[in-house]
Specification:
Layout lengths: L1 E6 L6 H12 L2 E4 H11 L2 H12 L5 H13 L6 E5 L5 H13 L6 E6 L2 H15 L7 H23 L4 E5 L4 H15 L1
Parallel strand pairs: 1-3, 1-4, 2-3, 4-5
Helix pairs in contact: 1-8, 2-3, 4-5, 6-7
The chain binds adenosine-5'-diphosphate.
The site of adenosine-5'-diphosphate (ADP) has 18 residues, from helix 2 and helix 3.
Length: 191
């Protein structure tokens, strides 16, 4: 099995690259951002609990995220592996993920980290905000809060995987195909 953590700040291109990776390698996609947006759209109790955090650009509490991921891991369809997109976003989530996988005799194969400068992130998110309809893409204060939250709470997750020799940095600026190419080179070495 190929279990990938796709990592990077908001606006780094995780969603775009995930789609291409899933298509090529037939992996189960677990995007916590997409899952929360689905819950919010359907007005479930989880969606209602998550909404206030998401709209302001804060993280949803770990226990809500971890429970939601656990359910998704159990209901997977492809035997080939998982791509975790936007998760884990805290060290506590990373530890929980390792424990969940271990129960099934699995582990993370590699972390692919998309690296993009802050100014480029801000301009990509502002552009996306024109069509995404996402409240958290709409104003500079929320966008900045997401980038700051990433640095404070999420960057330590990179150290967690570095300590396991699983971190691979990928230059996230350039054409979508070029970035995908770099990603595939790393994946093909790990397969
Ligand atoms: P982004 O483009 O900012 O990376 P995502 O779609 O991955 O956006 O996530 C949107 C929002 O959903 C985050 O800003 C956060 O509020 C919430 N969220 C998503 N994944 C997690 C997670 N693993 N832990 C906590 N909050 C999360």
């Amino acid at each position: 099995m190929l279990n990938i953590v796709l990592f990077g700040p908001p606006g780094a291109g995780k969603g775009t690259q995930s789609e291409k990776i899933i298509e090529k390698y037939d992996l189960n996609h677990i995007s916590t951002g997409d899952l929360f947006r689905k819950h919010m759209g359907e007005g479930t109790s989880l969606g209602r609990m998550a909404q206030e955090y998401i709209d302001e650009g804060n993280l949803v509490p770990d226990e809500l995220v971890i429970k939601m991921v656990e359910v998704k891991i159990k209901s997977h369809h492809s035997p080939k592996g998982f791509i975790f997109d936007g998760f884990p976003r805290t060290v506590a989530q990373a530890i929980a993920l390792d424990a969940m996988l271990k129960k099934q005799g699995l582990s993370i194969t590699t972390m692919l980290a998309l690296e993009v400068e802050d100014e480029e992130l801000r301009s990509r998110i502002r552009l996306r905000g024109k069509t995404s309809g996402r409240a958290d893409d709409q104003n500079d204060e929320r966008i900045n809060n997401r980038i700051e939250t990433y640095k404070r709470e999420t960057l330590p997750v990179a150290d967690y995987y570095t300590a396991q020799s699983k971190y691979h940095g990928i230059n996230g600026t350039g054409s979508i195909d070029q970035i995908f190419n770099d990603i595939c080179m790393v994946i093909d070495l790990k397969k």
